[in-house]
Design goal:
With 128 residues, this protein is mainly β. 0% of the residues lie in helices and 63% in strands.
């Protein structure tokens, strides 16, 4: 089955840097996009950054500070976060739009199907 596993979260001081990574595994036939969302307490989940084969997209709040990159061979997406601010504190979720087979959200894709997949989330806390 498809899994997205994040790593790299933690506690960092304001102005510091942190890197996240997310590895996709399972019966994946193609990757359309990968990226990162975040959800702070009491707020809705929001897009942080995403990357396709030809394009990257960033939330205005992180432009110039965060960089998203991808290694297709490793099925891995990275998020380098610099100049972190307390308002960046959130749970960060990896997201991927994949063509895959196997279980997905209570159903089973017996033939290749394009769908969104999510990681379990990793906590990023920016505090002095």
């Amino acid at each position: 089955q498809v899994q997205l596993v994040e790593s790299g979260g933690g506690l960092v001081q304001p102005g510091g840097s942190l890197g996240l990574s997310c590895v996709a595994s399972g019966t994946i036939l193609s990757i359309f996009s990968m990226g990162w969302y975040r959800q702070a307490p009491g707020k809705q989940r929001e897009l942080v950054a995403s990357i396709t084969k030809t394009n990257t997209n960033y939330a205005d709040s992180v432009k110039g500070r965060f960089t998203v990159s991808r290694d297709n061979a490793k099925k891995t997406v990275y998020l380098q976060m610099n100049s972190l601010k307390p308002e960046d504190t959130a749970v960060y979720y990896c997201n991927a739009e994949l063509l895959a087979t196997g279980p997905h959200s209570g159903t089973w894709f017996y033939s290749p199907t394009r769908a969104d997949y999510w990681g379990q989330g990793t906590q990023v806390t920016v505090s002095s």
